[in-house]
Amino acid sequence: MTTTRLPEAGDSRSIPAIRLDHASFGYAGRPFTDGLNVTISQGEVVALLGPNGSGKSTTVRGLLGLTDHVSGTVEILGTTLEDLSDRSRLGYVPQRHTLSNSVRSTVREVISTGQLASRSWWRRATVEDRELVSRAADTVGLADRLEADVATLSGGQQRRVLIARALASRPDVLIMDEPTAGVDVANQAVLATVLRRLAGMGVTMVVVTHELAALRGIVDRIVEMDAGHISFDGTPREYAEHRAAVSRAADSGLGQPDTNGTHPGYHDHHHDEEPEEHGLLSGTGPMDGPVEGNET
Ligand SMILES: Nc1ncnc2c1ncn2[C@@H]1O[C@H](COP(=O)(O)OP(=O)(O)OP(=O)(O)O)[C@@H](O)[C@H]1O
Fold first, then answer.
1. Taking the model in full, what pTM does it have?
2. What range(s) does the ABC transporter domain occupy (predicted)?
3. Which of 67, 126, 153, 235 has the fewest beta carbons under 10 Å from its own?
4. How far is the CA of 56 from the centre of ligand 1 (A)?
């Protein structure tokens, strides 16, 4: 039996992974974000930046149906959020989340829970399910820790377990909310290696972060939010220019320059290589070596 989600004849990588058209998200039916217009192509790696409280988590959690979709259109791979019956197409690594020390679970068990949403509760794990768990662990460099108690792992390793858990259902889009927050610089580098590997495999990623430097060379595009709206959308190079212009304007007392680079259909500066297969773990990536790190 196979659970692959490879594109069928006629399917196209040209369908956007995520399309927001005047979309707003909020709480108790009230919008917090403005009508957001963003189109993210398949295989793109997007960093979502912005000050605390600007609406980053509200937006990515809205994609997952965890905050209210108040207005506008939200499409995931061409299917509206409301019609998206298979939520396992979206993998999610939540914010500031490590695994409780009070529950004894092995790494294998935690990663396996990532498959529950896509598997009927009465169906036992298949050989392929178990293989996907092993491959997810391998992708994050924890293949040799599958039987370890998660409580014995470092914070950075636990983040990697959570990334593997998100990968175990072979999502089409991976959404991560501050995956490097609270992780020391050495372990941020390990996580960056994992993300680089996923990017090389053609995985579409939306990464909420305050630590752009940790994702240098991985991110194709930067979307910045401010007070619930998009204040910038462009390449990392354009973002650097935007920040420099903001600094110059601040230095000269002119306030914010008009450097809003919003261009929702951005496709430039993209991964050169098309992934061979559509599913996340359906092929080996270009970085199959172990993920190095000096974690304690
Ligand atoms: N459950 C909730 N109910 C009502 N309002 C909420 C809820 N969660 C968050 N908010 C509000 O939504 C607004 C946006 O918060 P959000 O968490 O999206 O910001 P953020 O950009 O992700 O910030 P941070 O970088 O601090 O995580 C804030 O004013 C916050 O107080």
1. 0.80
2. 18-252
3. 126
4. 8
